Structure formats: C-alpha cells, structure tokens
Amino acid sequence: MPLAILAKDKPNSGALRTELRPRHLEHLGRHAARLLAAGAVTADDGATPIGSLIILDTEDRAEAEAFMAADPFTQGGLFETVTVMPWRKVFFAGERVG
C-alpha cells in the first residue's frame, strides 16, 4: 500500500518555499519513478502554496521518512508538520483499481 505524505508549511514561509523550490524539484525528479503523485497543496485561492502532498510508491515508512528528510523543503525548515499515512488506491487516473 503506497504512503501519502502531507506536509504543512510554516506560516508566512512563501519566500522560503520559493527559494528552496528548484532544489526540491530536483529531489523529486531523482525519485520520479517512485512518485504516484506530488504537488503543492494550496490555500482556497488555488494559487498560494501552503503545503505539499506526495504519494510515494512504497510500503516502507522508514523509506518515506528518509525521502522526506532528504527533501530540501524539510532540510530548509519549510514544514511545520509532516504526516505519513498509508493510502489505499480505489480510483486512480480515472479508473477503479480497488
């Protein structure tokens, strides 16, 4: 069962997110084969990032935690909280899979 990672940014951290984003994207790119989905979670305006959602194709919580520990967003102190949760696929890419 893949793991969903929900990370919430610290308040007023938009400038830090912008600064760290290129290195964060490089990190995601190095692990692209393991990513089922990844992207920013936004405020209600649909534009202002307030966190990240990543669905990592692994059942190993330690691997997911190591993946996040190596993320420049984590290393740079962007996140207020990081939650790792099992994710059960029922619908994926418009298809029922479970």
Task: Give short descriptive properties of this protein.
98 residues; Alpha-Beta Plaits; 6 strands; 31% helix; globular
**CATH-derived topology:** Alpha-Beta Plaits
CATH top level class name: Alpha Beta
CATH superfamily: Dimeric alpha+beta barrel
Oligomer: single chain
What structural category do the secondary elements indicate? Answer: alpha+beta
Number of helices: 3
Strand content: 35-45%
Distance between the termini: 11 Å
What's the main sheet like? 4 strands, antiparallel
Order of helices and strands: EHEEHHEEE
Strand order of the largest sheet: 2-3-1-4
Average pLDDT metric: 96
Q: What is the percent of helical residues?
A: 25-40%
Radius of gyration: 14 Å
Number of domains: 1
- The CATH architecture comes to 2-Layer Sandwich
pLDDT < 50 stretches: none
Work out the number of β strands: 6
Shape: globular
Description:
- The chain has 98 residues and is α+β, with helices and mostly antiparallel strands.
- The chain has a single domain, classed as Dimeric alpha+beta barrel (Alpha-Beta Plaits, 2-Layer Sandwich), CATH 3.30.70.
- 31% of the residues lie in helices and 36% in strands.
- The protein has three helices and six strands, in the order βαββααβββ.
- The protein has helices spanning 14-30, 61-69, 72-75; strands at 3-9, 35-42, 49-56, 79-86, 91-92, 95-96.
- A four-stranded antiparallel sheet has the order 2-3-1-4, with helices on one face. Strands 5-6 form a two-stranded antiparallel ribbon.
- A hairpin with a 2-residue loop joins β5 (91-92) and β6 (95-96).
- The radius of gyration is 14 Å and the shape is globular.
